[in-house]
Design a protein that fits this description.
Blueprint (H helix, E strand, L loop, with lengths): L1 E3 L6 E3 L2 H12 L5 E4 L6 E4 L18 E2 L8 E5 L5 E4 L5 E2 L2 H14 L7 E4 L2 E4 L9 H6 L2
Antiparallel strand pairs: 1-2, 3-4, 5-6, 6-7, 7-8, 9-10
Bound molecules: zinc ion (2 copies).
One zinc ion binds next to loops.
Length: 145
């Protein structure tokens, strides 16, 4: 399976792991996933159903928020589709409004208070803390939820 990286525009052959990730996400009907380019090692998003990049993508303050779903530590991106949404490229959850997303974060912090450490609250908005300020074992802890 050949994939073209949206960052460096190189075409690379997907690894076995990537191929099974893509076929799993197709089965789940996911509209976008994050893949790591095997040529430049940057991450880019891909719609697994069409194998195209779901662009134009806009960078917002909410980009790179940690996913609020149980046992998922994916990062959230804003995708400007016909109906724009915020989505997690790991578990495929999507939120169509910012307030739905923030409510989901609020609920996840109530349930798992340590999760508050990966967000910065500005007014009613959640922003991501820089990755280096996250608790060291954040991903392991979330994976055990
Ligand atoms: Zn690349
Ligand atoms: Zn997720």
């Amino acid at each position: 399976m050949n994939i073209t990286c949206d960052q460096c525009k190189e075409t690379f052959t997907a690894s076995g792991e990537q191929i099974s990730f893509i076929s799993d996400s197709r089965k789940k009907g996911m509209r976008f996933i994050m893949l790591e380019c095997l040529s430049c090692y940057k991450s880019f998003s891909l719609n697994p159903l069409t194998m195209t990049v779901p662009v134009p993508e806009k960078t917002t303050d909410e980009d790179l928020l940690r996913c609020p779903c149980d046992s998922c530590y994916g990062l959230i991106s804003y995708v400007e589709d016909q109906k724009p949404f915020w989505g997690c490229g790991e578990c495929g959850s999507v939120w169509f409004t910012q307030s739905d997303l923030f409510e989901a974060i609020e609920a996840s912090i109530k349930k798992h208070p340590y999760r508050a450490k990966v967000y910065k609250k500005k007014g009613n908005n959640f922003m991501p803390v820089p990755l280096e300020n996250e608790p060291e074992n954040y991903e392991e802890t979330v994976a055990r939820e």
